[in-house]
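tool=predict chain=A
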Amino acid sequence: MRVKIVRVAQGKQSTLSHLYIDGIFQCYLLEDKIRADKILKQTAIPMGDYQLIVNSWGGMNTKYKNLMGKVHEGMIEIDQLPNFDYVYIHIGNTYLQTAGCPLTGFGFELINGDYQVTHSRKAYDMVYPKLLKIAKSKENQISIENNFQF
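tool=predict ok
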């Protein structure tokens, strides 16, 4: 399976993306603003090809295990990012909740010049088992690309 994040719009401090698995749209993603120079916990992931892994040792695992129960086997982490650590696909609605991580959503809004995603938990519940399966496989690649002009 092939996972792709395609960025489609940028707000003042936010970036809106589409998540695809095998070419099929899954949900929206929200990240921080794309920046030439990284600002810790305020910068979108660089374009490129990376790996998805299952992280079962980070602090968010306890929170998500309590939230999701047996379904949660670990956070879906985008690994091998230059100058980024512990980048998870997770639940949240605004760029203030990303800390450099993509947030899931079934809808989006543009409010005061920034994007927000909606129905984040529902989107995460739907996409998590798919991403978990991919992260546990040998075909655990994810690509990130921009599809708009800055």
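The mean pLDDT is 94. The CA atoms of residues 15 and 31 lie 5 Å apart.
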